Amino acid sequence: MIIRKLLAAGVGSGLLAVLACGLLPASAVADDPSAPPADSAKATPKVELVLDVSGSMRAKDIDGQTRMSAAKQAFDDVLDSVPENVELGIRTLGADYPGNDRKTGCKDTRQLYPVGPLDRDEAKTAVATLAPTGWTPIGPALLKAADDLKGGDGTRRLVLITDGEDTCAPLNPCDVARDIAAKGIHLVIDTLGLVADSSTRNQLSCIAEATGGTYTAVQHRQQLTSKVKQLVGRSTDAVVAPVATQGAATCTDAPQLKTGVYTDRELFSENRWYRVDVPSGQELRASVSVSADRAVNANYGVLLRGVTTHGREIVRDDEDGTGRTDVVSAGIRYPKPHKDSDTPPETVCLQVGNSFSAGPSVKTTPGLPVELSIDLVDSPDQPSDVAFFGLGSGWWLLGTLAVSGAVLGLLAGWVSRWRLSTGRTVR
């Protein structure tokens, strides 16, 4: 039937228009000579999991099983989900020496599986052989792990899983973490405390904070599995060196921020302020994440708000948490219309607030980890930079296909009406 063919042509053209936006290669939509080649090689991320195998891991208080059993099961699940482009290794501490000689026990750390392309079965077999044994030399293990991750230009992430604080003073693992951060190798250390007491929590929080990482308290096996998977996945993110800053109680006293990633600490139910200058023709894109690095009450939220220096609200976003996630994020966009080259930048005051609360036994200091991302890009109202809602120089292809689909659709409708009015069948 002619009508069916015309309808098919009209619908097909519409589908082609959609495909031009989302499914065709980038070169078919926008020929951008400044874009990197699609097949350009990316630096390989490196991750090392550092597992405490000390004697205290025999405790049977995680979902009715020992801490060691819970960790092994979590590792099995994690190893199955490691991205193909990530080089992963495993280091232990306290796995080999069962004696009482402190000097020997504080050297008890070894690389169980070398950092490199992952053989999942081999790594699982190595983990299966582990049994709770000795001391907790966290400081020495961190030093060795930093050496394990040397080389390459990709991200480096170390995930420390332990149920207790270091037993090998005077080598303070927090000082070790600070020394690692001072080397400028962008090694992030994330820490997870298994049923950790307050002393362990404080030490692990300090280690993580020193390198821009996160601390998470773990009470259940599935929680451990999910968190380690999340941290391994983060290793595929681009290398970004966060800058420590400190928000103020008012916009007037707030630090001036530029494009970049910033870290801060915010007390429970606190508001902090930051300032960003947005030039004419630029768009401010800001996002914030607040981490619950300790036990908190359910039903909390995070606020990110942009206001003028006179207090008028420009834009806001607030997100709620229910206790099922340890990170809550919010984000805003504010385009500054282009006027002329003499237009001065507009100062935007950013307010970061939270409604976290905790039980009486939970320490409220140090504050909750805050990560604030600031970006300034060309505003979408600049046609020379962003054409046709972000389609670049490929907008004409979408326009041509859309017009063709519309014309054919109208023609099909006209033929259909003509057939009904005349009572004729067109073949």
UniProtKB/TrEMBL annotation:
Q: Which UniProt keywords apply?
A: Membrane, Signal, Transmembrane, Transmembrane helix
Q: Report what the protein is called.
A: Ca-activated chloride channel family protein
The superkingdom of the source organism is Bacteria
Domain VWFA positions: 46-231
Q: Where are its TM segments located?
A: 394-415
Which residue positions does the secretion signal occupy? 1-30
The answer to whether the entry has keyword Coiled coil is no
Q: Which organism is it from?
A: Actinacidiphila alni
